[in-house]
Amino acid sequence: MLELSDRSRWLVGAVASTAAVSLWLARRRQFSAAVQAPGEPLSTSFEAYLKQAPPEPVQYATTSFEAYLKQPPTAAAAAAAAAAPSSIADSLQAPPSAKPVTILFGTEYGFSKEVAERAGEALAAVDGGAAFWPQLLDMADLEGGLPSLASCQALLLVCSTQGDGVPPTEARPFCDWLASAAAPHLATTHFSVCALGDKSYQHFCRCGRTLDARLEALGGKRLAARADINREDFAAIDGWVESVCSALATLPLKTLAELGGTATLAAPAAEGGAAPAKRWSRSRPYMGRLVAVEGLCRLVSADDKNTVRVEVDLGDSGLQYLPGDALGIWPSNCPEAVDELLEVMGVDGKLQVQVPCWHYDDAVLPANATSMPLRDALARCYDLRQPKPELLHLLHARLAALHTQQQEQHAPLGTNSGNRGSDGGSAGLAKGRHGKPGRLGLHHVKDKDSASELSGGDAAAATQGELCAQGCIVDRLERLAALVADPEAAEAYLRPRHLVDVLADCGGLPLGLGAAELLCTLRQLQPRLYSISSSQLEHPQRVQATIALVRYDSLGAVRIGVCSTFVGERLEEGQQVPVYIHKNPDFRLPADPATPIIMVGPGTGLAPFRSFMQDRLLRAQEGGAPPCGPCLLYFGCRLRDQDYLYGQQLEEWAAQGKLTLFTAFSREQAEKVYVQDRLAQSGPQVWDLLEHAGAHFYVCGDAGSMAGAVERQLLAIIEQGQGQGREAAQAYLQRLSDSGRYQRDVWLS
User: Fold this and answer.
1) Is the pLDDT assigned to residue 224 strictly greater than 50?
2) What PROSITE patterns does this protein's entry cite (predicted)?
């Protein structure tokens, strides 16, 4: 799992394989007998998953829901937090007249949490906060389930679908529990589900839909219709929130006073009655120590891209991983990018802003910190690349207000249609920062609360000539209006642009923006996942990843990968880096080491297979261990003497008979050769291992072209080996997938 190019949307994430979905559904059939709800048919039960043994930022007013999430908890709330590990609404004294509402969320990249918080804020705002008391719980912190769920009178559930149909990784244990016979009957629970997904995938919103069916099977009463949300459709999300709020207002729910003064749901206690121990995770990363960064490529020109081996010391964290898992790394934005943004905004980086409630447990911040310098927030909390469409709405509103103000002052405004053009398939604004416009003309105005507000200041006195010199207001207003009215055009405009580019398109205009307003239009900075390329048997306290350093051109500027350059170039050995282990139970070695494995991994797709090989060979050295079965590896790169990753180690394994190695160096001959070509050349051997030796087949790397080409070639090999036609070959491959013998870990780049 590698860093996506900045040209791709991070929310796409690592694309889950069809094998993961098939394995998930296969486990449903094996598990179905255990998931029957009382008095309900088996067909509505939740799918079960393979389980392995372990070896957006929103700024609100100070009286809002977001504000009280950051206030110091009371003693009672602290006790509740110990019982419910991830309860977010565990602070302040709850009004006795408020009716408790539980909001469960399961998330992979943070969007479900953002939607859950959006719903919580709306509920907390009803009747000035006196109507409802929302409690947010993360499924990731409920691995043992939530037996007290039956006491919940109102339940909202927000969950995304990972990849092509499976639950978020850290939500799987909770989903397993909900699917099992241990889940309670919910006869007195009213519920509604917000299912998040992406229509470009076959199994749109599958996880949320299945959770919805399971809650109904457990006897829950539907509070409001399930909402199936495509990507970031905030209009649909807000529609669901409104329907939920309206429905809750009609229910005779009990107040906190009627419930005895508390409605905090408790997670199962650990052995001995202690609160469940917090574990290192995505939201609570371990500060590992960078041990080594080793370049793996020979660079002969300025355009050559490097790949590095990164090694991190896990110290006393107790973190464990298996071959196939990924290393999650929380990056920091490039300091130069932060400086440039602050320059365009005209803001002092020391300005204090609120710590986003979704920011991970940050060892750099003081304990219980509620604010941090804007510079640090931009560096560690926010994605500075592709802002939300709300930014265009904000700029349009402020520009319209400025236009009205100028009209009221009788300042003549002309139109300038000579620069309309297009860029990235959409209507363009003024030339970007590469045309060197002035600042936004904004500066900080301190109020008694040190709020992060900016005003036009001296820039408001700019003359009409100065404004027209930087682009006509009317012209820009028309173009912004066109983008606001056309979501597809807005997305095309924003896709290649960073926040600084969009702001620079309005450079020099006194828009009176506030830092808090701008932060609202930014997405959360996401961690990056990199396939682990080492075995923990080699060094129990170390983990290695293989990372391609990302660089490309966009809008005439050189862009760099946020995380790849952070860990591969900016960090020094010995410095700390926030990390966690991302489990990948759908990409595993066979339990029997004698089972043959066939691995296809060009480029950095090799990473997990290095871990596979190390683990197999080290286990074979243990006393009484059976010998390893055949291991075939198909590796591809451009040139043998430039980007042959771990070439010496691979050649040594091959020379020792531990590995059968097939290489494809695409640029060493006139006609390019790829891994699928080498696979075709060894087709009979592959078929023999699949059909007669029970081999497992693995693919890791680019989902855009490589993975599809390899699958087509594999189908051709099966078809030729069977001699029964394409449909029979497809059925055979599906059986391999269902049984976990065909697994893919692929991503879009």
Assistant:
1) yes
2) FAD_FR, FLAVODOXIN_LIKE
